[in-house]
């Protein structure tokens, strides 16, 4: 079993930055893809960024390209999301996710095998 524990959510002003972290616990060797998703109020969960661990390929949603960067720790048991130039529309619950299969493209939520509990990000204008 894999457990994902997010941290780093906060309330920030528009234009600010923050860094989300996700600790990956358990059988991390069974994971081939890790990702960040988010769900804004009254919206569906959407993919933000992903890393295919085998090929070290990253993907970022168009809405965050150039502002957010996904990365991982050296031991592959920590995932990060550096978020800069934050906008009010980035307000959401951010979820760490892991997939047993690879992810050449940004994965869909229904392909995710393991979810974290989420961390709240609020961007004030």
Give the helices and strands, then pairings:
Blueprint: E1 2-7, E2 11-13, E3 18-26, E4 33-39, E5 46-52, E6 57-60, E7 68-72, E8 78-83, E9 92-99, E10 114-115, E11 119-124
Parallel strand pairs: 2-11
Antiparallel strand pairs: 1-3, 3-8, 4-5, 4-9, 5-6, 7-8, 9-10, 9-11
What would you say this structure looks like, in words?
By secondary structure, this protein is mostly beta strands. It has no helices and 11 strands. Strands 2, 4, 5, 6, 9, 10 and 11 form a 7-stranded mixed β-sheet that branches. β5 and β6 (57-60) form a beta hairpin. The protein is globular and about 40 Å long. The mean pLDDT is 95.
Strand proportion, as a percent range, falls in over 45%
The shape is globular
Q: Structural class of the secondary structure composition?
A: mainly beta
What is the subunit arrangement here? single chain
Calculate the terminal CA-CA distance, rounded to whole Å.
Answer: 40 Å
Helix content: under 10%
Poorly predicted parts = none
SS element count, helices: 0
Number of strands: 11
**How are helices and strands ordered from N to C?**
EEEEEEEEEEE
User: For the residues shown, what is the average pLDDT?
Assistant: 95
As a whole number of angstroms, the C-alpha radius of gyration is 13 Å
Largest sheet: 7 strands, mixed
